[in-house]
Amino acid sequence: QVQLVESGGGLVQPGGSLRLSCATSGDIFSISAMGWYRQAPGKQREFVAAMTSAGKTSYGGFVKGRFTISRDNSKNTVYLQLDSLRPEDTAVYYCNEAHISVAGREDYWGQGTQVTVSS
Question: Dihedral of CA 73/77/81/86: which sign?
């Protein structure tokens, strides 16, 4: 069973930065992509960023260069650097791990980490 452990959330002022981390217990050779989603109160979960096993990255349209996803294979960890944070970035951020094979897609989720942007 894959376990994802997130850390790095917290309270930050507008314009500030945070770095989220997500460590996986999964076999890196089974991972197709890892990424981040977020869910604000009363809203649907939305895509933030992802990185494939080949290193290709993608971002949600609202990111506009403010967030950066990266990984450290030696630590089985993916990071999300959040810069120029805005109050509307307040949400629970979830780490996602996708395994894609001929049998289909399996998704694994972390427990979520709260990011609050407020003065």
Answer: positive
pLDDT in tens, 11-40: 999 999 999 999 999 877 778 899 999 999
Q: Which residue from 88, 42, 45, 100 is spatially nearest to 63, judged by alpha carbons? A: 88
Q: How far apart are CA 20 and CA 96, in angstroms?
A: 13
Torsion angles phi and psi, residue 8, rounded to 5: 105, -5
Place of tokens 């989603």: 37
Residue type, 61: G
Residues 56-114: tens digit of each pLDDT: 999 999 999 999 999 998 889 999 999 999 999 999 999 999 998 898 999 999 999 99
> How big is the chain, counted in residues?
119
Q: Which helix (H) or strand (E) holds 100?
A: strand 91-101
Alpha carbon 24 to chain centroid, angstroms: 12
Could you identify the residue written with the tokens 């001929």?
A: 102
